[in-house]
């Protein structure tokens, strides 16, 4: 069986270092906001090419705190891609703002920059771009429209650690970059974890306050804050994994290249663009008979996933909130998309086997 993903397999190589990191924190006796968090924040900021990184409890919280910072009024609007993972939309709603969905491009799966302007109203305050599946959005036209309309830009980087757009890493283009270190992400912890990146000193200071109850100094509270601190143990594990992130990415890129070279043309491959370096959190192809293909692969002992089977506006939770409108591009993507195995735990032989089976699909 070629499983879609095995975290045991992915993390095997790092077990000894994780164990040492655990021992070190355990015996250190300092478990919240200690030197491990500070050190990881510094290394990850430097990895992303930004001044500041603030560790928080999850990717969702990274989005919530970023949006909270700006102090927008209830009902103000935030533009977000219609095909994102629901967390991006929930973050907007959690701070009392209104998500406004914009269609993605069918080849890149990312927000279509040309469709942003027509979604802007007098209440639009920000664009939440999502670098989906490990490919960055086309940032130049997005930053241009943001500047024209005086909008803030937050990057949802949960699937794009280390992805590059014209020389710039994910998390270094907008006002804030919001990262998740959920265990399956390219830079995955051994539990929940997240971080915010930014270039501005004031933003950094304010987010540090917000994540820790709004506390600016011990027992002094300047804001109505949150408890959303990156766990000291997770920070120690993340520092181990970060050293290998480029190796992990290179492995995934090698596997993606096999799919691109070998898969027959019946399968619609994810788009490539000059100046983009994609990190392949997910390798998502499209096929008109996706469900039959998925079943066929499973019958041949190959696990796949669907990211995601139901569009956000068609989820029950969004009844009366996002329902009503139709997003045909997004719906087509959700109907036809299939994620193939592409993890650090897979070998080239695994991928060749997937290709061999897929190319016999008819
Ligand atoms: C995983 C993910 C999140 C949420 O991250 P958590 O750490 O699970 O809170 C947000 N946005 C996107 C695009 C994601 O893939």
Automatic annotation (TrEMBL):
Catalytic residue positions: 185 (proton acceptor)
Alphabetical list of SUPFAM superfamilies matching this protein: PLP-dependent transferases
Pfam families associated with the record: DegT_DnrJ_EryC1
One example GO MF annotation: transaminase activity
Swiss-Prot/TrEMBL keywords: Pyridoxal phosphate
GO biological process, one term: polysaccharide biosynthetic process
The name this protein goes by in its record: dTDP-4-amino-4,6-dideoxygalactose transaminase
Origin species: Sphingobacterium detergens
Keyword Translocase among record annotations: no
Modification sites for N6-(pyridoxal phosphate)lysine: 185
Family, as annotated: Belongs to the DegT/DnrJ/EryC1 family.
């Amino acid at each position: 069986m070629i499983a879609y993903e095995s975290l045991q397999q992915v993390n095997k190589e790092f077990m000894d270092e994780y164990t040492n990191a655990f021992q070190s924190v355990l015996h250190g006796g300092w478990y919240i906001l200690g030197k491990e968090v500070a050190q990881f924040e510094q290394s990850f900021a430097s990895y992303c090419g930004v001044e500041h990184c603030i560790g928080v409890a999850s990717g969702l919280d990274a989005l919530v705190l970023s949006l909270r910072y700006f102090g927008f009024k209830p009902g103000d609007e935030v533009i977000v891609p219609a095909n994102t993972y629901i967390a991006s939309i929930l973050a907007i709603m959690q701070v009392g703002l209104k998500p406004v969905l914009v269609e993605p491009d069918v080849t890149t799966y990312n927000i279509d920059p040309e469709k942003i302007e027509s979604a802007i109203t007098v209440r639009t305050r920000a664009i939440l771009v999502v670098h989906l599946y490990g490919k960055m959005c086309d940032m130049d036209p997005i930053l241009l429209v943001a500047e024209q309309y005086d909008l803030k830009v937050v990057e949802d980087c949960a699937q794009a650690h280390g992805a590059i757009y014209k020389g710039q890493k994910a998390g270094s283009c907008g006002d804030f970059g919001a990262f998740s270190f959920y265990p399956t992400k390219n830079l995955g912890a051994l539990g929940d974890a997240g971080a915010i990146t930014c270039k501005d000193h004031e933003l950094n200071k304010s987010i540090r306050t917000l994540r820790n109850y709004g506390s600016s100094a011990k027992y002094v509270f300047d804001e109505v804050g949150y408890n959303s601190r990156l766990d000291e143990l997770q920070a120690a594990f993340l520092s181990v994994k970060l050293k290998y992130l480029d190796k992990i990415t290179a492995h995934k890129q090698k596997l993606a290249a096999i799919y691109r070279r070998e898969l027959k043309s019946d399968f619609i491959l994810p788009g490539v663009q000059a100046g983009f370096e994609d990190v392949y959190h997910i390798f998502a192809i499209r096929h008109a008979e996706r469900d039959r293909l998925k079943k066929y692969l499973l019958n041949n002992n190959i696990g796949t996933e669907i990211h995601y089977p139901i569009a956000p506006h068609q989820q029950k939770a969004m009844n009366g909130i996002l329902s009503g409108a139709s997003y045909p591009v997004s719906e087509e993507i959700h109907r036809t998309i299939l994620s193939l195995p592409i993890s650090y735990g897979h070998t080239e032989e695994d991928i060749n086997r997937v290709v061999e089976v897929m190319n016999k699909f008819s």
